[in-house]
Amino acid sequence: MQKNATASINTAANAGGMPAAGRLNWSTRMAFILAATGSAVGLGNIWKFPYITGENGGGAFVLLYLFCIALIGIPLLIAEVMIGRRGKHSPPDAMKALAKEAGVSRHWSLVGWVGVITGFLLLSFYLVVAGWAVSYIFTAGTGAFHGASGDEIGAMFGGLVGDPVATTVWGSVVLLITSAIVIKGVKQGLERAVTTMMPGLLVLLLVLVGYAMTTGHFAEGVNFMFNPDFSKLTGTSVLVALGHAFFSLSLAGGGMMTYGSYLGKDVSLGKTVLTIGVLDTLVALIAGLAIFPIVFANNLEPGAGPGLIFVTLPIAFGQMPMGQVVGLLFFIMLSFAALTSAISLMEPAVSFLTEKKGYSRLKAGSMTAAGIWVLSLGSVFSFNIWQDHTLYGKTFFDVLDYLTSSWIMPLSGLAMAVFTGWVMKKTSTKEELPNGMTHTLWRFLIRYITPVGILAVFLNAIGVMG
Ligand code: PHE
Q1: How far apart, in whole angstroms, are the C-alpha atoms of residue 34 and residue 198?
Q2: How far is the CA of 338 from the centre of ligand 1 (A)?
Q3: Distance 43 CA to ligand 1 centre (A)
C-alpha cells in the first residue's frame, strides 16, 4: 500500500496525474467544483445555520461564524483538498502517503480515519433531516400549507417527527438513493444534479427573501442577523459557530479529502476553494434573510430549534401567491442539495473499503449503508420514543451533532492545520499552491491563525463550561 501510495504521488506530479487503478477521476475542473459545492451547500446552510443563529442570539453569532469561515474554514479547506489531491488515496492512506513523504510517523493516518468515521456519524443524522425535507415535497405538493395557521403548521411538523415509522421510512428513502448513486460512482448524476438544482435553489431562496420583504418585519430580521450584541454570546455559542464553519464547508468529514483525491493538478486550489466558500456562505445568509422576517412576523421563537425552517417556510408558502408550486419546488431543491451533501458523506467510507479491502463498490456501499441505517434509528427516535432519554439535556441526535461538529471536526481540523502548515515540507505545499502570494498567505494563516483560532475557541468553551 505504502509503495503504491508513493508511486501515485510521483505519477500525480506529471500533468494531470495517472489515477491509481480503479480510481474515479473528475473529468473537468468544473466537475470537481460542482461536486465540492454540492457537498458544501446543503442542509447546513438552509436548515442548520438559521436555527443555530436563532438559538445563539443572532448578529454576534453570525459575525463570529463569518470570522471562522474566513480565517479557519477557507485555509483548512485548501489544506484538506490538498491532502487528498497530493495523497491520491482515500483519507487514511492519503494521510499515510504524505506522512511518509514528509518523513514522519504513519500514525498521522489517524486524521484520515477520523474523517471517514465522522462522515459516517454525520450521515446517520443528516439523512433523518433530509428525510423530513423529502416528505415535505409531498406535504407542500398537496397544498396542505395553504391557509394553515402557524399553530397548524407547527402541529404538522410535530406530527411528522413524532412518528418514528414515517421518519424511518423517509430517512431510508434518502439512504437508498444516496447509496445507489455512490455505488454507481459519484461522477455521473452529481454534475447534472448540481448544475440544475443549485441555481434553482438560489432563485427560490431569493423569491422567499422577496416574500420576507412583504411581511413588514424584514428590517427586524436583518437587524437580528447583522446587528451584533456580544452579550448574547456564550462559550458554547463560540464553539457552535466554529463547529458550524466546519460542518457547512464539509470540512473534516472526509468528503473534501476524498473528492480532492480525484482531482488533477491543473486546478487552482486557492481560487476554487474561495469560490466554494463564498457561495456556501451566501446561501446561508440568504436563507437567514428569508427565514427571520417570517419568524418575527408570525411571533415565532427564533430559538425554536431544528424545526425552524419546517415551520417558518411553510407559513410563507401558505400565504404567498403560487405558494403551492414555490413550496413544492423549494423542497425538491432542498432535497437535492441534501442529497449531494449526503453523497459526499458516504463516499469516503466506500472509497476506503474498495481501496483497502478490495470490495466492489456494491459491497462496500451496502455495508456502509447498513451500518448508517442502524445508527440513524437513534436520531429518528430522538424526536419521539427516546426524546426524554437525554444526556446533559441533549438527545441522541443532539449529542451526535454536538460531538461531531463542535469537537471532533475542529480537533481534526487542528491536526490538519499542523500537518499541512508545520509537518509537510514547504516545497510540497508550494507545488500544490504554485501562486507565490496565495501560498504565502495560506501558509501564514494555516500555521498561525487557524490553529490559534481553534485553540482559543476550545479554551474559551472549556473555561465557560468548567
Ligand atoms: N456541508 C454539508 C451541509 O452544509 C454537510 C456536510 C458536512 C457534508 C461534512 C460533508 C461533510 O449540509
Answers
A1: 9
A2: 8
A3: 8
CA-nearest residue for atom 9, ligand 1, is 250
How far apart are the CA of 430 and the centre of ligand 1, in A? 28
* Distance from residue 124's CA to the centre of ligand 1 (Å): 12
- Nearest CA owner, ligand 1 atom 6: 250
Ligand 1 atom with least separation from CA of 39: 8
pLDDT, one tens digit for every residue, the chain (466 residues): 333 333 333 333 333 333 444 456 776 777 788 889 999 999 999 999 999 999 999 999 999 999 999 999 999 999 999 999 999 999 999 999 999 999 999 999 999 999 999 999 999 999 999 999 999 999 999 999 998 998 999 999 999 999 999 999 999 999 999 999 888 876 666 777 777 778 888 889 999 999 999 999 999 999 999 999 999 888 889 999 999 999 999 999 999 999 899 888 888 899 999 999 999 999 999 999 999 999 999 888 999 899 999 999 999 899 888 889 989 999 998 999 999 999 999 999 998 999 989 999 999 999 999 999 999 999 999 999 999 999 988 999 999 999 999 899 999 999 999 999 999 999 999 999 999 999 999 999 999 999 999 999 888 888 754 4
Indicate which atom in ligand 1 lies nearest the CA of residue 409.
Answer: 9
Ligand 1 center from residue 99 Cα (angstroms): 26
d(CA 33, CA 286): 21
**Cβ atoms of residues 185 and 258 within 8 Å:** no
Distance CA 381, CA 385 (A): 5
90 phi/psi in degrees, rounded to 5: -65, 160
How far apart, in whole angstroms, are the C-alpha atoms of residue 402 and residue 408? 9
- Compute the distance from residue 11 Cα to the ligand 1 centre, in Å: 31
Q: What is the crossing angle of helices 164-184 and 323-357, to 10°?
A: 60
Q: Whole-prediction pTM value?
A: 0.91
Angle at 288 between CA 284 and CA 290, to 5 degrees: 120
Cα-to-chain-centroid distance, residue 271: 20
Whole-angstrom distance, CA of residue 138 vs CA of residue 25: 36
To 10 degrees, the CA torsion angle through 191, 192, 193, 194? 50
Looking at the CA of residue 345, tell me the nearest atom of ligand 1. 10
Q: Using most ligand atoms within 8 A of CB, pick from 126, 250, 259, 340 the residue to mutate for ligand 1.
A: 250
Ligand 1, CB within 6 Å, residue ranges: 39-40, 42-45, 119, 122, 247-248, 250, 253, 255, 341, 344-345
**Ligand 1 centroid vs 119 CA: distance in angstroms?**
9
Q: How many CB atoms lie within 10 A of CB 61?
A: 27
Atom of ligand 1 nearest to the CA of 249: 1
